[in-house]
Records
---
Amino acid sequence: MAESCLAEHLGHYVELTARERDALDGLTAGSRTYRRGAIVRAEHGSNGDIFVVVSGWVYSFALLEDGRRQIVRLHFRGDLLGLDGLAFPESPDAIGALTDAEVCLIDRARLGALFTDHPRLAALLFAVQQVDRVNLTDRLVSLGRNSARGRVAALLLQIANRMRFANLPVSDGFALPLTQEEIGDLTGLTAVHVNRTMRVLSEQGFITRSGNMLRILHPDRLARIANHSRRNVAIDPAWLPNRS
Amino acid sequence: MAESCLAEHLGHYVELTARERDALDGLTAGSRTYRRGAIVRAEHGSNGDIFVVVSGWVYSFALLEDGRRQIVRLHFRGDLLGLDGLAFPESPDAIGALTDAEVCLIDRARLGALFTDHPRLAALLFAVQQVDRVNLTDRLVSLGRNSARGRVAALLLQIANRMRFANLPVSDGFALPLTQEEIGDLTGLTAVHVNRTMRVLSEQGFITRSGNMLRILHPDRLARIANHSRRNVAIDPAWLPNRS
DNA sequence: CGGAGCTTTGACCGGCGTCAATGAGAGTGG
DNA sequence: CCACTCTCATTGACGCCGGTCAAAGCTCCG
């Protein structure tokens, strides 16, 4: 019955009651699937859909006038997307599928009702938003101050961390479904330079690659050149309103 | 009585009832002032304070091992800071004062109670968070894909927009209380190159400077080289729960 | 008058973008 | 099984943007 994986996702942070799980599952209003490369939501459109990633890799991005692209965020299983529609009549960025992906729609009105009926869940959503924001600031720091090598290193570590968090298998290497051009669009580099940079990371023994399988050999040393700090997430349970 | 300016700030988005204004003002728990250059909150500290900027320019930033700095956000009157403390036991970034500044503290427990007592205000805070997030993504795109000239141009436009929104006078030029080093830390450049870049922007007639007064002469042309898009903010009132 | 902080300018160099060519697979149709 | 095509990875040559280092003005303040 759990079409949405919101309950599963929020359950990582806090223990949920059965009623709360039902409430979260009740937000769902159908699901959709997309093929690799498909556009889920266009930029400047008025599509205010809110949804949750069920499977696959989804990304949001901005296009510049000259055709270049900057990927703003990656989204994995459990991530809540499209919330910007609550504050902007036009989509500030576009959303697409990096792999075949499935999402399930969230009914906007029911999400609003959640604030009345389940204040604890609303507060939890509010707190979880902060995690997304901090991820964004970490990427901002990387783009602002890291060299190409550091940017790619930071990206790989962030991806590994987020996959681990989404319970995707990472331990000894993982499939990286990104072209070098997409890595460039994530890091603000060109595809050519991504290629050179990843070769250097291999030669220096930080990572190994074969096909699209990637393995991080020295997370600590990689973290140093990426200016990456591991962050503990722990939502203060005392702050949340009482269970319902 | 309105020590906090939260009510004023949120009132920009939605009409508030008197009771709601009282509730927002009641979140306040004292205020503090800081001198230009003072540190409001250190990185990796366990200071979980939440507060609102009352006056002055405040910024959050990250320090790298080698001493370089990346400024992540600027905060103006009405901005809510320190929410990351709800999800992270250690501050993910530091906060400082760019000018003399005054902030007022928000009582964390009362903020939690707001979710129970005033679901509409909680939903409004949730929606307003999206505005902050989109501001961050705009900066990310600028750092990822703009040249030095574009990055500085984008920064100046963003600052002007946010000052306008905070009802600070901007019309014909405004005082920019930032050193070129700080502009560099905002844009991911060095102070030296910021200097060269701003000279070019002057010579090309986009801006004029005298002292720290800055005037934007051609917002439209500047927006083009900054890949800047003006965004309308409009919180969907139908989505919010009923007034209380 | 002197010092501290900031701005401005020059010389030099390296990292990363650009352009272009080649290789390597995967899929498609004959 | 073999062209053919399309996408993506790889590599080299070359040039420019922006970093680095250093020195000199400018302003404010003691």
---
Amino acid sequence: MASKLEAFTRLSADEREALARVSRNFRYVDARRDLISEGDRPRCVHLMLEGWACRYKQLPDGKRQIVSLFVPGDFCDINGYVFKRMDHSIGAITRLKVAMISPEEMSALTAERPRITQALFWQELVSAAVQREWTLNLGQRSAYERIGHLLIELYLRLQAVGRAHDGRCDFPLTQNDIADATGLTPVHVNRTLQELRRDRLIELERKQLQLLDLPRITDVAMFNPNYLHLDHDGRHLDANA
Amino acid sequence: MASKLEAFTRLSADEREALARVSRNFRYVDARRDLISEGDRPRCVHLMLEGWACRYKQLPDGKRQIVSLFVPGDFCDINGYVFKRMDHSIGAITRLKVAMISPEEMSALTAERPRITQALFWQELVSAAVQREWTLNLGQRSAYERIGHLLIELYLRLQAVGRAHDGRCDFPLTQNDIADATGLTPVHVNRTLQELRRDRLIELERKQLQLLDLPRITDVAMFNPNYLHLDHDGRHLDANA
DNA sequence: CGTCTGGTTGATACGACTCAAATTTGGTGG
DNA sequence: CCACCAAATTTGAGTCGTATCAACCAGACG
């Protein structure tokens, strides 16, 4: 498992071993199944080992909003178990391999390992920054920009964990999922994707995304990578420095 | 200062005293001034003592999105100083009285005071939950519901710190601010507020908001207070229990 | 093969935006 | 206390982006 934590700071052999140990207790979840649902009592932290998931909220009238996406290496709800009840659901986009980490294991993992603690903390802060950027995305960008922005973000996040190269990456979201994440209708997502293709900015088929011109799409989607904090501000924690 | 922390757990005299001490180093900020701007290097935690502020992000084309609002008792960017650069700005809505707390003071405040640490942590988690709800708000609700939702949220948050009663509270946002927070145009906000007034759901003038029928507006805005976690899950930390 | 899910197309409707101007409010200085 | 100015709110007319509804199509799968 190429933990995302390595994107923040290089870990020592011991730290890596501890992470691997905690990941040994995993399970598989079918695509389109909930890992945990709104109203449930949270019991453990999930670490995504394989596949994509999403956090979503639903309205009484049936409308659904995907509020976050999780890709391999992401922890979800590190602190979730502090609340008595989930105020949202976590659903599998694809078939999933996830580690289940109990609060006790979590404490054991972080005790005496400040670099891991710090890296987890870091990831939480980045998640919050991403959530703010999504707010901006939904509030101020057009459909075209919004979808472009989403594609770039996911590409860069996958790249940070070694799962994207040369503008190419897996992209298992259906147009319906994209609609739920961007606050658009599936029909309009379809037409907008066609526009992006026509403009030679992307190719997207068979769950494979290719960004054809990263500088240009970055520009038209007004994508500013600041918020991902990928510039390794955490280097000073490098175990091998 | 009626600290918002008291909304989560009752504090002991010592804890309250420590908070008061740390609040002694405050400054005033004029309305419409930035407390800190995107790109700046964060240097301290801010605690809102008086007045309202917002967190916002701006796009190259000039569009602006308010991504969070801060009311008295809120800490902003408790962990902000972990990042090298701010990925957003904090602006004063009204004239502001804010405590400036250095990272060192922050450590001193929390060291040996687990209830304060816990309460701060709690507030961060609630902020994240609010951010997710805003994502839902922007993505799935109509203008009418969206504005209604915002009004209810702020009313309840103010109520939690003793600044709202009987459906009434201060509401210093201009229609322009509401527009920036809801992703609508000021003109449309104006018309939608008129609708809410016509439907006898709210009164809003001279920066005073009155919710005329909380059950009904809660229903039409599909407001579910879960996400604010106001149900005192943190009671077990009560210093006086 | 039929069925299902995901993707595509067309026609039409409507919610929210734009632009421009008028009006009201609140603050400031004479 | 009034005159003035800037900021905030309101109104009107016209447009546009996105939603809606309803088919239809393609590939995957049992």
